[in-house]
Amino acid sequence: MRANEVKNKEKLFDALSLSEKMKLEIAEELGLLEKVQEGGWKALSAKETGRIGGLMTKKKRELKAKQEEQ
Q1: C-beta separation of 59 from 22 below 8 A
Q2: Nearest 5°: phi and psi at 22?
Q3: 22: nearest Cα among 70, 11, 30
Q4: Would you say the pTM of this structure is higher than 0.70?
Q5: Neighbours of 52 (CB within 10 A)
């Protein structure tokens, strides 16, 4: 991958909302990022989508609890 392509992808990633970034990070952790990149979010099964949603909820709760502690 060329340096320009990497920079462009980083710019696109930076332009996303926090929720979208979190969703992509979780998809990557679950090994689903390539599937999403190739076919979009609709390419995922209901089980895969539910797993991402569940992990997003868990992370959001953890972040909120951490903020309340401070």
Answers
A1: yes
A2: -65, -40
A3: 30
A4: yes
A5: 22
